[in-house]
Amino acid sequence: MEQGTSMGSDSFASNRGPQNYRNITLITEAEAREAVRRYVSSSYCCCKPRAEEPAIERLTQMPIYRYRLDTFTETRHIEKTCKPYTGQRIDAPDREPPPLLWGIEVYTPKMFHEGLKRFPVPRSGEIKTCHKCVGRGRCKCTRCGGSGQFRCRCSSSNRQKSRNKRCPTCSGSGRRRCSKCSGRGRRFCISCKGKGQLFYYLQLSVKWKTLRSEVVSNPHEEEPNFPLILLQKVTGEVIITDDDVTVHPLAGFTDVPEISAASEKLIQDHQNACGPSCHVLRQHQTVEMIPVANVQYGYSGKSLSCHVYGREGRVYTKQRLSGLACGCSVM
Ligand SMILES: [Zn+2]
Ligand SMILES: [Zn+2]
Ligand SMILES: [Zn+2]
Q1: Ligand with an atom nearest the CA of residue 152
Q2: Which pTM was predicted?
Q3: Ligand nearest to the CA of 156
Q4: Which of 103, 110, 255, 304 gets the most CB atoms within 10 Å of its CB?
Q5: Over the stretch 299-329, which tens digit does the pLDDT of each residue have?
Q6: Exposure string (b/e) for 190-211, b if CB count within 10 Å is 16 or more?
């Protein structure tokens, strides 16, 4: 897609500019009243709320823009690994050397689905003698040092000797068989599974991951008391959506310059986060407008205020509604 380079009409769904979206994402008086009514009734402790509708006195719209950038990346690295050689087919570097890191063909993953996969690198296989057992398939037992037996405890006990009793552990022989190697002194080599040979090859690890960053525009200067962190749990109206292999910064977003700046910065940040071993496969950027309104309302003879935010119509206020309580001791 070519959009994203300008804020021309085709950057927006349905050819509408950001200004036009304000109208459809505003919080209406009816929505504000309903949100406040729900909030007021949930603030009562145990008694039923009075059948009183909050009266909306003033509604100040302060919609906030949220910019999100998702970058789906593929990170690769190669390491040498080995497994027992059991006669498998060897893809050896015959005439051609193994391919370079990004020359290895790997299937295309489903975009924005994270995961980790390992692949053998073509033409990288070779067979070597097992370093652990030097090709014998068996190693010296580490417990008995290869002798297959130990001295029995009775051989150092004078008391036992003097009584001249037959030791039940060694039947009087003074030596006891090593249980780890069953007295053989050698054990099966685990590294090569007793085959004596190892199959070495290069293994490519591929990790797919999504980087996500978001920025919200500053709210109205006269409304500095609304905690922006609350917006993480609500949704707004998506007004721009742009998906491409790599997206371009959203320029010309004159309405909210922070969004253009954030877009430019975050695209750069995501690019910087990728090095030679990490490639960007896909990017997705969106701008959402989240409705937020400061609501002043009258209830129970008092003038109160709160913020109603998100399409979910959530309410935030610092004011306690204790004055509205039923008077019971729980409040
Ligand atoms: Zn003994
Ligand atoms: Zn042993
Ligand atoms: Zn071995």
Answers
A1: 1
A2: 0.72
A3: 1
A4: 304
A5: 888 899 999 999 999 999 887 765 555 545 4
A6: ebbbbbbbbbbbbebebbbeeb
